[in-house]
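In this supplementary section we document a worked example of the pipeline. Step one takes a protein sequence of length 210 as its only input; no multiple sequence alignment statistics are reported here. Step two produces a three-dimensional model, which step three serialises into structure tokens for compact storage. The input and output of this example are shown verbatim.
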Amino acid sequence: MTGRVTRSLSPEALARIAEAVGEAESRTAGEIVVMVSARAGLYRSPVLLAALIAALAAPWPLIALTGWSAAGIALAQAALALAILSLGASEALRLRLVPARAKRARAREAARRAFRQRGLTRTRGRTGVLIHIALAEQHAEIVADAGVLRAVAPGTWDATIAALLVALRRDEIEAGLVGAVRSVGAILAEACPRSAGDIDELPNRVIVSE
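The serialised model returned by step three reads:
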């Protein structure tokens, strides 16, 4: 899945997800933030590397098997490199060239970077939780701050992430995110219940990154 987030989530859908966040937070001291990114990376390096390797390798069979001049071989090198670079303009093709492990690592890093940059480490009780999805990579990640990690056992989010990934594969993004928000909210309501004086420290709106 590639393209703009707004093609997958309408303003009305984003509003319904934000409403689910507000409802979930009404029962917990936790702060839930949802972020939807079109992609975690552009992945241009594999295309550049492929073009370089092809250009370096191309002269040898031409020298051995043809009587082409040096100028002709140089033109063939350039044409091959340009052809590969042109194909690399397709995001879908670039994604196919990148190993799944590399895409997962890039998406995880993007989620952790967003967690820091979006202020989730600055809540009073360190109770921020980010639900992050990268559409192009079909990756979902939940990142929690120290206050939540002290109260929630490792692996607690696994079922939530698994359900969200199923929804992504079915292109049911809104339903998947609403379900994830409700699941995270239920976990936080038990682990970090709301108390008197708790305030909503972070906006409920969905963060969209194209």
